[in-house]
Every structure is written in C-alpha cells, then in structure tokens.
Design goal:
Distance between the termini: 40 Å
Low-confidence stretches: 1-9, 265-275
Helix content: 25-40%
Largest sheet: 5 strands, antiparallel
GO molecular function: transferase activity
Strand content: 15-25%
InterPro entries: GHMP_kinase_C_sf
Structural class: alpha+beta
Radius of gyration: 17 Å
Protein name: Cytidyltransferase-related protein
Organism: Candidatus Sulfotelmatobacter kueseliae
Keywords: Transferase
C-alpha cells in the first residue's frame, strides 16, 4: 500500500487524459479487422488539477508507470519516442497489454486524433497523429464537455469476456473517432454528441461486457440512454463505467469540468506525420 501511495504522489505532475470516440481501435485485435484503415480515436490531454478515480478509464495505471519511469515528471523529447518508451515500460511481460492511446493521451497536449492501421507496426502505435492546439477550440471543449463520476470498474471485471468482432462495426468505431475530431475542431456540438453516441453503440455491439457484465451492479445502459436522450451525446470514460462524459451547452447537474493541457509553444492546428 505504501508503495502505491508513493507513486500516486510522484504522479502529481503527470497529466491525465480523456479518451473520447473511437476507443478500442488502438488494440491490434480490433484494427486488424478494419476494412477501411486507418481507424481513429480521440484523446485529450488534461491538466492534473484534481485526482481522478483509479480503475475508471483515466489512464491512472499508465500515470503510475510514467511516474516510476521518469521520476514524476514528463521529460522533453520526441513525443512518439516517449510514447513507445512508456508503452514498453508498462506492458513488459503483461499477458493483455494496454493500448498505446493511454500513453499518447498522457504525453500529447491538446486534442489529438490517433490513426491506427494494423499494417503499421502491427497496429501497436498510430500511423498518424492529427493534433489541435487552438486555444479557442480548447476553451469551447472545456465548456461543452461535462464529467459525471459513476463508479470504478469492480473487482473480477474483464471487458473482453464476450466478443462479437465484426468488420463493419470496427469500421464504424474507427469512423466515430474521425467524426469526433472534426466536430471538436469545428466546434460542432451536435456532431460531437453523435460521435460519442456512435462509439457507445460500437462498444455494445463489439464488446458487450464494456457496458454490461455480471460484476457491474449499475445499469450502465439505462443511465447512458437517459443522458443521451436529454443532451447532445454521452459516453463512458472506459469499460465498466468510470465517468460519464456528456456533451452539452447547458449545465449538467452534478458534473465537473476539466482543464485541457495546452501546448507551450505552438497553439495552431498542427499535423504530426507518420514516423
């Protein structure tokens, strides 16, 4: 316990990340089936302004790995190289490795569309990253994205227990990430909400245990449907619940709002090409 607390304390300066539409496309078993690669997902770098729950889709285990690897502070250097270093550090000897979106989301500031193609490095790392550092866009996203705490993943939970992997649903999953990024950079709330709703439809179709499982006591689907019916869109932060993200121009009772981590130098819309 003392060891875990120590690394949580050391991680105080390590950013968090939000994973929006397209999550799971960073897993090779998913991207391998995509008939129209690359498939995309969106990650948003967050300032560590307050502690998020563990086991809630906020990459807290990756933050702890980063703290151990880099003594509590992100180093300077090529972002893609840092992503690979952190991926290797966290997944060494792990039977079911995490996807690289966790590492990319922590290291890259702003809003980033990660494009995954199985033919590029076996789908382990993005073939392309499209980044938005526009401050007006970041302020808009902070205003319309509301975060509701739900519950951490329960003990004994595994989202991969039931799989219905379909090429068409994988294609739709990867497309939801493209739509999500376009919606953010154009500040289109309706499109943003629909990309989130579409991502949740894909999760339920491909990996049903992401939203319902014997170990999950909450009715995640009913809760999700309630917010989707009242607001532009909603999705969970990760498999098994965690936090509920709601897209809305109006206040969402009980929600918190995040602070997006901005790039220090270049706040323009930029593109990081294939490495």
């Amino acid at each position: 316990m003392r060891f875990l607390i120590e690394w949580h304390w050391l991680a105080d300066e390590i950013p968090y990340r939000m994973a929006l539409a397209g999550g799971w496309i960073d897993q090779p078993f998913m991207s391998k089936l995509n008939p129209q690669p690359p498939g995309s997902m969106v990650v948003v770098g967050l300032e560590p302004s307050f502690p998020f729950m563990d086991r809630a889709g906020m990459a807290t285990s990756t933050r702890a790995a980063a703290a151990r690897l880099w003594n509590g502070t992100l180093p300077d250097g090529d972002p893609m190289q840092l992503i690979r270093e952190l991926y290797e550090a966290e997944n060494q000897g792990v039977a079911q490795p995490s996807g690289s979106q966790d590492m990319a989301g922590l290291i890259l500031p702003g809003v980033n569309r990660l494009d995954y193609d199985y033919d590029h490095r076996g789908g382990l790392f993005p073939v392309h990253v499209e980044s938005c550092h526009d401050e007006e866009v970041m302020i808009w996203l902070e205003d319309v994205l509301h975060v509701l705490p739900v519950a951490p993943r329960p003990d004994g939970y595994n989202p991969l227990g039931e799989q219905h992997l379909s090429a068409e649903w994988v294609r739709r999953l990867g497309e939801s990430g493209k739509v999500c990024f376009h919606a953010i950079v154009t500040k289109n709330l309706r499109e943003l909400g629909e990309s989130m709703n579409e991502c949740m439809r894909c999760w339920e179709a491909l990996l049903p245990h992401t939203v319902r499982h014997p170990a999950i006591k909450l009715d995640l689907l009913s809760l999700l449907a309630s917010y989707q019916s009242r607001y532009a869109g909603a999705m969970y932060s990760g498999s098994g619940g965690g936090y509920l993200y709601v897209a809305s121009e109006d206040k969402v009772p009980g929600s918190i709002q995040v602070k997006i981590r901005l790039a220090q130098k270049d706040r323009r819309l930029t593109s990081t090409l294939k490495r």
